[in-house]
Every structure is written in C-alpha cells, then in structure tokens.
Amino acid sequence: MTTPPRQSGLIVANYGRHFLVENSAGERLICHSRGKKSQGVVGDRVQWQASQDEGTIEKIEPRQNLFYRQDEVRTKSFAANLDQVLILIAAEPEFSSSQLSRALIAAEEQHITPIIALNKSDLTEPFARAWDWLAPYRQMGYDVLPLSLASRTEADRAALMQRLDGKTTLVLGPSGAGKSTLINCLIPGALVQTGELSQALNSGKHTTTSTTWYWVDAAKTTALLDSPGFQEFGLNHIDPAQLAAYMPDLKPHVAQCKFYNCSHLHEPGCGVISRVKSGLSPYGISLNRYKIYGDLYAELKQIRRY
C-alpha cells in the first residue's frame, strides 16, 4: 500500500493529544500526535499525514516563539508563532497588577509585542482610576488602548483592527474582562461555532480545547487566538537574574549598578534602587512596580532552591 504524502498544516485548536489542523485548502481535520507525547500547540506549522478519516502529525516546524506559563505543577503552553499578545483588562472587576506584569514579562521574554487594552471606558469613574493607574505602563512605552466593548462602537472596532491587521494576536485576560465580547465584535458567530465543535468532540473521546485560532479576514492574513483566563500565571521558567531585563522600567538602570550580579534589592550603588520613586516621572520606577519585582524575584529564587 502506498504511504500517503506529507502535507503542510496549521494547528488551530488543541484537544489533549488530538489537534484540529487546517490544511492548505482551508479544510480542518482531527490529527493525532505521533507517539505518547503531545508536543504541538495552537499556531504550530506542522507536517501531517492522512490516516483513514483523520491524520497523524509527523513533524512540528521550528517555532518563532512560544508563549507559555509555568508553575510548580505544570507548564501551560498558550500558542506559538505569535506577533502580539493583547492583554485585555477591565475597569471593573478590578484587575491584578501582578498578573498583568507576569503576562507582560512572559511576552518580553519571548520577544512578543504586548498590547494592553482597558475595557469599560463607559464606566466613567472606575475607568479614570484604572487609566491613571496604568500611567507607568504608558511611560514604559506600552500601547494602552481604551475600549468600551459593550457599546460595540465602530471607533473601537477600527482601533482594534488597526493594531491587529496582518498579524497573529493572542487575546489573554481574566474572567469578566470582555474577551468573548471582543471576539464576537470582530468575528461574529465565531464562539458559537467553536462551542458546537467542542460539544461534538466532547461527546466522544476528545477533551475541551484551551486555545483556539480564528481568521478575522477572508484573505486569512489576520488571526485572533482566544485563550483561557489567567488566574494563576507562573513564571518559573524565568531566571531571577534575568527578571529585570524583561521589565522596561527597570532594564535601563541595570547598567548603573555597582555590582554585575546585583539583585536590585539591597546592594549599595544599585542603579535600580536609586530610581525607585513614589511619584511618577519618565525615568523613575513606581513603588508598585518595584514591589512586583521584589515579590517575583523572591518567588523565583525560592523555586531555584528545590
């Protein structure tokens, strides 16, 4: 019997050891990973081979990047080959500054451009407080986008499309931030179709998906990836000695440290400590951000001991 030729494909959803792969014709089929280990993630370019009514993934092409989090228990891969991560937070419910910083650090470590989108601009007072709180992030050079997704205005849609056009973007955010509204705003009906597919697969041997790939445009140049919320965002894969390099407000001042192995926590002549300020300035480090650094450093140091 002739062996079917290998074909190119793109992983667009992950169901445990089973993947939904889109072929070059735009058709989607279930593929299984070769062997016991499930190495693929959404966004992977793969070589697959037909087998009866399904397929087998034979090879994963080299990745440009891999966005993931790692805690004490396991590694959670969100997606590969990303251009951007859009971190969606809302004026209400109040978001976690630690989780926002963790997501930004994970993106910086993989050289993925982060965008912060603050939803619910229609809630005047809570939004004003949250917008002021994000001032240090704007000063760091992050793109911070105001949105009112519930209003579904054309201005919001245009602002989003200006940033997403021609790129592969992972949408990440806590529960209640408005991720479903954002996806339905850009791709009407997408979540309904995904829900139906998940239900059909779950009725058999497959488990639910974690991240899903959507094409925003008919030409398939712009992609949006939906992911689960991030209540816990572990950074155990980050070396504590490198942590400051992934925080744009700390990084410029590391070169001024007296000691090459400075932890930026207690050493004399530390360039970072000298820039920690309670007030805002273009060259200072906010107390909140410095506390986040200290807490993360201690957490990562503790992990290295075991």
Helical coverage, percent range: 25-40%
Q: Name the poorly predicted regions.
A: 203-208
Q: Output the CATH topology of the largest domain.
A: Rossmann fold
Q: So what's the oligomer here?
A: single chain
Count structural domains: 3
Give the DSSP E fraction (strand runs of 2 or more residues).
25-35%
What is the correct CATH architecture of the largest domain?
3-Layer(aba) Sandwich
Cα Rg: 21 Å
How would you portray this structure in words?
The chain is globular. It starts with 5 loop residues before the first strand and ends with a helix. A hairpin with a 7-residue loop joins strand 12 (212-215) and strand 13. Strands 10-9-8-11-13-12 form a 6-stranded mixed β-sheet, with helices on both faces. The chain folds into 3 domains: 6-60, Nucleic acid-binding proteins (OB fold (Dihydrolipoamide Acetyltransferase, E2P), Beta Barrel); 66-196 and 207-226, Rossmann fold (3-Layer(aba) Sandwich), CATH 3.40.50; 240-304, Orthogonal Bundle (Ribonucleotide Reductase Protein R1, domain 1), CATH 1.10.40. 25% of the residues lie in helices and 27% in strands. With 306 residues, the chain is α/β, with parallel strands linked by helices. It contains 7 helices and 15 strands.
List keywords for this structure.
306 residues, alpha/beta, OB fold (Dihydrolipoamide Acetyltransferase, E2P), Rossmann fold, Ribonucleotide Reductase Protein R1, domain 1, 3 domains, 6-stranded mixed sheet, globular
